[in-house]
UniProtKB/TrEMBL annotation:
PANTHER family: SHIKIMATE KINASE (PTHR21087), SHIKIMATE KINASE 1, CHLOROPLASTIC (PTHR21087:SF16). ATP binds at A10, S11, G12, K13, S14, T15, R120, Q158. It comes from Tenacibaculum platacis. Binds 1 Mg(2+) ion per subunit. Pathway: Metabolic intermediate biosynthesis; chorismate biosynthesis; chorismate from D-erythrose 4-phosphate and phosphoenolpyruvate: step 5/7. Belongs to the shikimate kinase family. CDD domains: SK. Its cofactor is Mg(2+). Pfam families: SKI. This is Shikimate kinase. Substrate binds at D32, R56, G79, R142.
Length: 172
C-alpha cells in the first residue's frame, strides 16, 4: 500500500508520516528530503539557484521515480506539491494508493507557523499581524487541490497518536 500525506505547511505531514510508517512497518519518504538528497542542496537553495518552476518540475519527477521504484511506502509531500503539474491526478492514478489530506483550521496553522516562521521561507518575512490573513488566502488557493485527496482527516487539537489511530481505521 502507498499512503501519500498532503496538506498545508506545518500541518504535521512529516511527523504523522514517520509514526504511521513505523506503525505499519512501511518505509517513510519525505519528498523534500528526497529532492535535497538527489540534488545535494537544500530546497531553499534549489529555489534560489534554479527557480520555483524548476523545483516544481523536480517534485513531479521525484513522485514518478518514487512510485516506479516502490509499491509500499508513506510519502509526505511538500505543502505546494499537490498544486502543480497535475500531481494529484498523477498520485490518485496509481494503483493501491491512498492520498490523505491532513486538514487543520486557520487559527491552528497560524499558531504553529508563528512559532516556526524562521524555518519557513514562505512566511519568514510576513509580519505577525498579516500572517493569519496570508494563511487564509493561501489555503483558499490550495484547497481545491488538497480536497482531491481520497481521504480527509481533521487534526485540530488532536494528539499524533489519535490522528494515527484515525488514519489506520480509515485505511486498514
Amino acid at each position: 500500500m502507498r499512503i501519500v500525506l498532503l496538506g498545508y505547511m506545518a500541518s504535521g505531514k512529516s511527523t504523522i508520516g514517520k509514526v504511521l510508517a513505523k506503525n505499519q512497518n512501511l518505509p517513510f519518504i519525505d519528498l523534500d528530503d528526497y529532492i535535497e538528497s538527489k540534488f545535494e542542496k537544500s530546497i531553499s537553495d534549489i529555489f534560489k539557484d534554479e527557480g520555483e518552476i524548476f523545483f516544481r518540475l523536480q517534485e513531479h519527477e521525484a513522485i514518478k521515480e518514487i512510485f516506479e521504484k516502490q509499491d509500499k511506502f508513506v510519502l509526505s509531500l511538500g505543502g505546494g506539491t499537490p498544486c502543480y503539474a497535475n500531481n494529484m491526478d498523477l498520485i490518485n492514478g496509481f494503483e493501491n494508493t491512498n492520498s490523505l489530506y491532513i486538514k487543520l483550521s486557520i487559527p491552528t496553522l497560524y499558531k504553529r507557523l508563528l512559532s516556526q516562521k524562521e524555518n519557513r521561507p514562505l512566511v519568514a518575512n510576513i509580519p505577525e499581524e498579516e500572517l493569519q490573513e496570508f494563511i487564509a488566502k493561501h489555503l483558499f488557493e490550495r484547497s481545491y487541490f488538497y480536497e482531491m485527496a481520497k481521504y480527509k482527516v481533521r487534526t485540530d487539537n488532536q494528539k499524533v497518536e489519535d490522528t494515527i489511530s484515525e488514519i489506520q481505521e480509515l485505511l486498514f
